[in-house]
Structure formats: structure tokens, C-alpha cells
Design brief:
mainly alpha
């Protein structure tokens, strides 16, 4: 499987895109619980951009790197005020 380079804009998308359906509809992708991301990893991620973002969030969560989103989250929050 070929590895793709991460698009830095995807990190911002994790903090601005909400889950469009399911149990966690309306929740920011960055705030989805790990067990939900693990379920997608087992059952299969959706196709397209949403699936790519969910895979990225799963990798971030699985590797304990969620805190890396904190500065970006603060930046986004302060720019929307």
C-alpha cells in the first residue's frame, strides 16, 4: 500500500468538520471517541474525504497524539471570536 503525505490543511479540517451521520452526528471529527474510530478501523472507513479524515484522526488518537491539535484548536477558536 502506497503511503500518502499528509496535507497540513487536514489537521484544520479535523477541527472544523463534523460527523455527518450516525451516533456521533454533529461531533467534530477531532472529538470523536477512540472506540468509534477503532470501529471504523475494523469495519472499514468510508470512501472519499471523510474516510481519509477519519483515518487520520484514528492514527492521531491511536498513537496518543491528540494533544498536537491543541494549539491549532486554540488558534481556530480565537479566530472565530
Amino acid at each position: 500500500m502506497a503511503r500518502r503525505h499528509m496535507n497540513p490543511e487536514d489537521l484544520e479540517r479535523l477541527l472544523t468538520t463534523t460527523m455527518p451521520y450516525g451516533k456521533h452526528q454533529g461531533c467534530l471529527l477531532a472529538d470523536l471517541p477512540g472506540n468509534y474510530l477503532n470501529w471504523f478501523a475494523r469495519e472499514g472507513f468510508p470512501k472519499g474525504g471523510l474516510g481519509r479524515l477519519l483515518q487520520l484522526m484514528h492514527e492521531i488518537d491511536h498513537n496518543g497524539l491528540s494533544s498536537l491539535l491543541t494549539p491549532l484548536r486554540q488558534s481556530i477558536t480565537s479566530s472565530t471570536k
